[in-house]
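Title: Prediction job returns without error message
Component: structure pipeline
Severity: low
Priority: P3
Assignee: unassigned

Description:
Job completed but the reporter wants confirmation the result is attached to the right record. Sequence as submitted:
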Amino acid sequence: MALLSGRIRFPAIVVMLATCLACAAAFAQTPAELLIGRWELVSQRRVVDGKGNPDRPVSDQNRSTIDFSTDGTWRILASSHNGSRGTYRWLGPGRIESTTIKAPIPAGNGARRTLSVEIEDRQLTLTVTLSAEELKKSGGQAKPNVSYPQELVVVSTFRRLPG
């Protein structure tokens, strides 16, 4: 009889597990849906020509938030400048293309970049890789006697804000 009850319990457990997985799948969101909302920048890490620096927490003077909307637009509100805004579109899993419409520095207007996107629970990580040429363009006119890295990788970590 114990064997029979063991057989009955096993299918019941399988049915319960399948039900739980089906419920979880019904509430699952795609990365595109998870990106929508308001995020606060909490740290940044820069890797210059392959040499990484530790994550740096964001100071009160450099606080910023980014809002991603369902219409494919983004907006950054920053304490250190007037902010910026632009558009984004998904290129594939974990990658978006961002186009800046209004930047704090006019040379940044029209910049188009590919960003890596990772969303885990209430944390968003955006990673962008910039070449020396892109750095010169986005900083305005190239300055004499200033050396630019060949490659700059910026890893920005955000936390989701309520609302």
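Comment from assignee: result matches the submitted record. The chain has a mean pLDDT of 82.
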